[in-house]
Design goal:
Elements (H helix, E strand, L loop, with lengths): L15 E4 L2 E6 L8 E8 L2 E8 L10 E8 L2 E6 L9 E8 L4 E9 L9 E7 L3 E6 L15 E8 L2 E8 L13 E5 L2 E6 L2 H4 L2 E8 L2 E8 L10 E7 L3 E6 L11 E6 L8 H10 L23 H8 L15 H8 L15 H7 L16 H8 L15 H8 L15 H8 L15 H8 L15 E6 L6 E5 L14 E12 L2 E13 L7 E6 L6 E6 L6 E2 L3 E3 L2 E7 L2 H4 L23 E12 H4 L5 E7 L5 E4 L39 E4 L12 H4 L2 H7 L18
């Protein structure tokens, strides 16, 4: 491949990366010295220029593309001296192979701490994490350690990237330049520090445990010598780590050397994990008929003899202690006592710990953070199975005991910066959304206006207030749900059908207010389903929320949902859309009189506007929810949308559900059919017990192509008279 054009001093090839059929070549001096990144795509044996990406910042650094990395369609571009004070930035782009387009997903910005620290002169990316090095960063805590270096980790959730952690070397010293090179694969990050020990160099391996990146090993060359610069470059695969030492002397010549180490990553499932998967796959399957085994009368997987003579459980009752877990689950999978509803006596039942709280029902303090599971659940509202509930890189114990930040919110003050970013990048107050009191949140100043959140005189100037509509002004779209998840049921997609319209008020493209109109139009379900919505901003950023028209609006209570906020819109769809006399359902049975549902108007005002890419598109994460007799909450979301923290995790992967969190696949069958859909127009739903594919056969092509073909399947009803 050769550079486009003929301009000299472009530094074409300054940094490169490749993944699959996509190759990325940076040219920091290209495009009139602004910098450019060229993406090539392989077609057959030919590599063709696919796109050219240039910086959209007004600050021209001549460093755009100083580092690049691409993986699985995600591209990160480093710009080590962008910004007014050279704090540095990195940009993340996502490739859509169907439309053959690139979309910018995020701008990761340095702050006060990274000024002139070469933030983003080294970058790496995987499908879920972005890694940004700041090799020249000084210790911000006044320890007189200069150029010690640091590395920042960002985690992707859906299309949003948020700061998760800041890594430094346990044995790091002044001048090490930790972070001069970075690489990531799966749950491992390798970081170079080529200036360690008179530039002999070192490389540090980090491993993801839970949501915490822990230092696992430090590589030092066995034949290392000063000025080798071991760690100048690093790479990592599933099995190996390679380290470059470009200044290594071999036979008195500076020929350099490369070291390769075996990583030995354990990827096989344990037998316990296999047993758990097999057991969960057989639970709550209403289609399978029970087969009575005379040696196992209750069908719980334990023999009558073992239950009678060894366990003292009932051979005719699969759940002797009636706690919601079968005797087999308790004995074989979880190690709990089948005769006690609360094995560890922490006031949380075994079922609650297994299904709802992600905790170990045999331990009082599952995550060993000093807080009992009961205290985390009932007092702190933290996750008893995680030492860092909100995934912001700050331990729950540190947030509670030292910082007074909220351990359940990555962004305690709701200003658009995580607590970690405020403390370790910008030195702003994580408990005050507007540190310099200039009436603009810290997040807006950093992420939108490029002004200082600590300088009162550096005040942003808002430019444009706009209004956006979805799907269009005075036009309704449709949400449709099949509520029998994880079973497909009759798949007629009329269990809950709701029309919607959203009006968004934006300031410089940031969403500050939402008015969501929701009107139930069909109910073909006997379950007690409620309608709820989860939006991508923490509860601390909700200024107000109301239900109803302006003249008669009543407050709507926000519910904390981790770093999202949840609202209950309709408690029971039956009450919002009752069936006409003589019929069981509403607007789904043949010859049924039409019922008109009430219009629900939800108005949400935000303290601090939120980037539309983070906030998401209307109707946002709307979903239906119902509660089982044992307390389990069953939620049904649009495909790819995550459940709330209140949803039972027990049902995922059972019956027809093929959820795979590692690929962001949620609420879809093996054939990619959904249980919920958004349709950008008024839609004619099927009648009762008419399979969706009978009325709309093109949906099968749409699903098998993962949404890449037959995108307008909903416009083509097979028989419009039905």
């Amino acid at each position: 491949m050769t550079k486009p054009g003929t301009t000299s001093n472009d530094y074409f090839g300054e940094s490169v990366s490749i993944s699959g059929d996509l190759a990325v070549i940076a040219s920091p001096g290209g495009s009139n010295d602004d910098g450019a990144v060229y993406v090539y795509k392989r077609t057959g044996s030919i590599w063709v220029l696919n796109t050219t990406i240039t910086p959209d910042s007004e600050f021209k650094s001549k460093q755009f593309g100083a580092a690049v990395s691409i993986s699985e369609g995600y591209l990160i571009i480093g710009d080590g001296e962008s910004g007014k004070t050279k704090e540095g930035s990195a940009y993340i782009y996502k490739y859509d192979d169907y439309d053959d387009t690139w979309t910018k997903q995020a701008t990761l910005k340095g702050g006060l701490v990274t000024r002139a620290a070469n933030y983003a002169l080294s970058v790496a990316i995987s499908k879920d994490y972005a890694v940004v090095g700041a090799r020249m960063e000084n210790d911000p805590h006044g320890n007189n350690e200069t150029n010690k270096g640091a590395v920042y980790i960002y985690k992707r959730k859906d299309d949003a990237w948020t700061n998760q952690a800041k890594l430094t070397a346990n044995a790091g010293l002044s001048g090490d330049q930790f972070g001069n090179s970075v690489a990531i694969v799966g749950e491992h990050i390798v970081i170079g520090a080529e200036n360690v020990n008179s530039s002999s160099g070192a490389v540090v391996l980090f491993h993801l445990v839970g949501d915490i990146w822990l230092e696992q090993f430090s590589f030092i060359a066995a034949d290392g010598a000063s000025q080798d610069n071991f760690g100048h470059s690093v790479a990592v695969s599933a099995s190996y780590v390679s380290v470059g030492a470009h200044n290594k002397k071999i036979k008195k010549s500076l020929s350099g050397d490369v070291y390769v180490y075996a990583l030995n990553v354990q990827t096989q499932q344990t037998q316990g994990e296999i047993d758990l998967e097999n057991t969960l796959a057989t639970l709550d399957n209403p289609i399978e008929e029970a087969i009575i085994n005379p040696d196992d009368l209750d069908g719980d997987g334990l023999s009558n003899i073992d239950e009678t003579d060894v366990l003292n459980t009932s051979p005719t009752d699969p759940d002797t202690d009636n706690d919601g877990l079968t005797d087999y689950e308790e004995v074989i999978i979880y190690g709990t006592d089948p005769l006690l509803t609360d094995t560890d006596q922490d006031t949380l039942t075994d079922l609650e710990e297994v299904i709802f709280y992600n905790s170990d029902p045999t331990l009082l303090d599952t995550d060993e953070d000093g807080f009992s599971d009961d205290y985390e659940v009932n007092i702190l509202n933290t996750d008893p199975g995680l030492v860092d509930t909100d995934g912001d890189g700050l331990l729950d114990a540190v947030e509670v005991n030292e910082l007074a930040t909220d351990p359940t919110l990555a962004d305690t003050d709701g200003d658009g910066l995580t607590d970690n970013e405020e403390l370790n990048l910008h030195l702003t107050d994580p408990l005050d959304a507007d540190s310099d009191k200039d009436n603009f949140s810290d997040g807006l100043e950093v992420n939108l206006y490029d002004t200082s959140p600590l300088e009162v005189a550096d005040v942003p100037v808002p430019l444009v207030t706009t209004t956006a509509y979805s799907p269009a002004e005075e036009q309704m779209g449709t949400m449709a749900f099949e509520d029998y998840w994880p079973s497909k049921g009759d798949y007629d997609f009329n269990d809950v059908v709701i029309n919607y319209n959203a009006t968004e008020t934006k300031v410089d493209g940031q969403i500050s207010k939402v008015i969501l109109k929701l009107q139930p139009v069909a109910r073909g379900a006997s379950y007690k389903n409620g309608l709820q919505i989860s939006i991508n901003t923490p509860i601390t950023n909700i200024a107000s929320a109301t239900m109803g028209p302006v003249s008669n609006a009543v407050p709507l209570t926000p519910i904390a949902d981790g770093n999202q906020t949840m609202f209950v819109i309709i408690e029971d769809i039956k009450d919002a859309l009752p069936a006409p006399n003589g019929f069981e359902f509403a607007n789904t049975e043949p010859n049924s009189p039409k019922v008109t549902g009430a219009m629900f108007i939800v108005t949400i005002n935000l303290h601090n506007p939120v980037d539309e890419n983070i906030f998401g598109s209307a109707p946002y994460n709307s979903f239906i929810s119902r509660k089982l007799g044992n307390g389990e909450v069953i939620e049904v979301h649009f495909p790819g949308y995550r459940p709330t923290k209140y949803a039972s995790k027990r049902q995922f992967g059972t019956v027809h559900d093929d959820t795979d969190k590692s690929t962001d696949k949620f609420y879809q069958t093996e054939d990619n059919l959904p249980w919920a859909m958004i349709i950008p127009q008024i839609w004619e739903h099927p009648k009762e017990r008419v399979d969706l594919s009978e009325d709309y056969p093109e949906i099968l092509d749409w699903a098998s192509s993962r949404g890449k073909s037959k995108k307008d399947w909903y416009k083509h009803k097979k028989n419009k008279n039905k």
